[in-house]
Amino acid sequence: MDHFSPRLVVRTLALVLVLTCISARIDQPWAQEKNFLWKAAGDKNTVYILGSIHLLKRDRAVLKPIVQEVFTDSKRLVLEIDLLKEGPEKFQRMLMQKGIDGDGKQLQQQLSPETYKLAAERADDLGIDLKLLAPFKPWVVALTMVVMQLQKLGYDPNLGIDHQLARRAKQVSKPVAGLETAEFQIDIFSRLTAPEQEMFLRQSLLEMDQLEKSVDDVVAVWENGDIARGEQLFLESMLAYPELKAKVLDERNRSWIGQIERFLKEDEDILVVVGAAHLVGKEGVIELLKARGHKLEQR
């Protein structure tokens, strides 16, 4: 990865973890809104494509009526990963396999004194002992601290749209599938070089205080179904770093197109739920499908 921006990766991380957001205010008129939701017509079925968020505050954890409607109408739920099969336990196993330094180096040995000192200070703010994270690579520490900060701010992964829909699918015995695996997603970060990982961690720590505003900006875009603003917010700074954008978004988007086109040839309606950053821009899922001749309608 020739062009690496730690600031960009922090924004990307926030989007990956909180992608993309729900929730209009409860007292807003739902029916008058546009949504990060598209309808694609197949020969015999409909495929709905919904932008999601992976963590939500409890007072915003409301499924819009239109989301409930398309979930009910769909016979299968497809998420980025199958949350019923690849839950927290598997994710933790993957972290243990890929997130611990193979040479046995402790975190302090992998970081400059300045970055380690900053990590210790942030860990203290979060109420954790940094020694508990000593065996892990810097990218794992960055992920851990960002998630903990989001949870401290009131965001709960169990309230995320994808998690809510997965639980509902389990309750009604609706089939669930994934476009990719948890291992694939973890590999996006585990393939960062050692210098990139330190910059990633350091910038994550430095920008922790701005995390809530970043998430609030994403929420505002999502709640208004503002595609133009979403493209600007999600993609503008990434354009200067094509290698990172390719790994985090573009390559994954292209790999999903073939799967979605196969869904469009089936007989039953399907709901596909992915992060909203994947749905905007010329390289986004929606425009890629349109370029291949598919007609999509924003709901």
Could you please describe the fold and organization of this structure?
With 299 residues, the protein is of the alpha/beta class. The protein has one domain. 51% of the residues lie in helices and 11% in strands. The strands form two sheets. A six-stranded mixed sheet has the order 6-4-7-2-1-8, with helices on both faces. A hairpin with a 4-residue loop joins strand 1 and strand 2. Helix 5 packs across helix 9. The longest helix has 22 residues. The N terminus is likely disordered.
Largest sheet: 6 strands, mixed
Tertiary shape: globular
Oligomer: single chain
| pLDDT averaged over residues | 85
Percent in strands: 5-15%
Q: Please identify the structural class as seen in this structure.
A: alpha/beta
Helix-strand pattern: HEEEHEHHHHEHEHHHHHEHE
Core attributes:
299 residues, alpha/beta, 13 helices
How would you summarize the topology of this molecule?
Layout: H1 6-18, E1 37-41, E2 46-52, E3 56-57, H2 65-73, E4 76-79, H3 88-98, H4 107-110, H5 113-126, H6 138-152, E5 155-156, H7 161-171, E6 176-178, H8 182-190, H9 194-206, H10 211-224, H11 227-235, H12 242-263, E7 270-275, H13 285-291, E8 296-298
Parallel strand pairs: 2-7, 4-6, 4-7
Antiparallel strand pairs: 1-2, 1-8, 3-5
Helix pairs in contact: 1-9, 1-10, 3-8, 5-9, 6-9, 10-11
Brief summary of the model shown:
With 299 residues, the chain is of the alpha/beta class. It has helices spanning 6-18, 65-73, 88-98, 107-110, 113-126, 138-152, 161-171, 182-190, 194-206, 211-224, 227-235, 242-263, 285-291; strands spanning 37-41, 46-52, 56-57, 76-79, 155-156, 176-178, 270-275, 296-298.
